[in-house]
Amino acid sequence: MPVVCYRQLVRLPRPMGKIHIQCRMTTSNTTLMGTAGGTFLSIVPNLNSEDVLKTVLLAGIGAIVSFGISMVLKFIIKKNKK
């Protein structure tokens, strides 16, 4: 990753100034896209259709349970406020 440094003159209350050097890292978009693409392509061959189906099924069940619990808690809170 390239590092960009620049100098900045900082004025102090006294007549003397102080030079302050700041550095920051820069990234290019092509590096990020290459890393993301390589990661994705290394994961895809290791996925089984059974694993994907199991994940989708468990995510659906989790969403339904979460929604149900939210509705029950909302009902209990409204009931206790009255």
SSE blueprint:
Blueprint: E1 3-11, E2 17-25, H1 29-43, H2 49-81
Antiparallel strand pairs: 1-2
Structural class: alpha+beta
Write the H/E string, N to C.
EEHH
Question: How many domains would you count in the coordinates?
Answer: 2
Kindly report the oligomeric state of this protein: single chain
Rg from C-alpha positions? Answer: 28 Å
Taking pLDDT < 50 over at least 5 consecutive residues as the criterion, the unreliable ranges are: none
Total number of helices: 2
Q: Order the strands across the largest sheet as they lie in space.
A: 1-2
Mind explaining what this structure looks like?
By secondary structure, the protein is of the alpha+beta class. It folds into two domains: 1-46, no CATH class; 48-82. It has helices at 29-43, 49-81, and strands at 3-11, 17-25. The chain has a two-stranded antiparallel ribbon. The longest helix has 33 residues, at 49-81. The termini are far apart.
